[in-house]
Amino acid sequence: MNSLFLSAYAKASLTDIYVYTCETWGPAKIDAYLDGLFSMFEQIEAQTELSRPMPPELELDGYFIRIQRHCIYWKQFNSGEIGIAAIWHKSMLQGDRLLAAFGVLYDRQ
Question: What's the pTM?
């Protein structure tokens, strides 16, 4: 299995998702929602998910997959390592935010 890491953007998103879901839907919902996200991370790592390539106009080498109301944006490096760039709600604008999030992944190498 490949190793997987989360960028600072992805970690911040998990915190935001946790806080918002707890405040809006209660603690029971957050456990199920986070379990779903972490399960998707495992599927990405095992390469059993059905991710789509990033749109060509963004000129980003990476993939995205939707899970419930969020999208997970990720990239696999030549080393096999997988970086989760961001986890954003489907309603959030992407463009420049995605460029910044993927830039953080490249800065890590």
Answer: 0.79
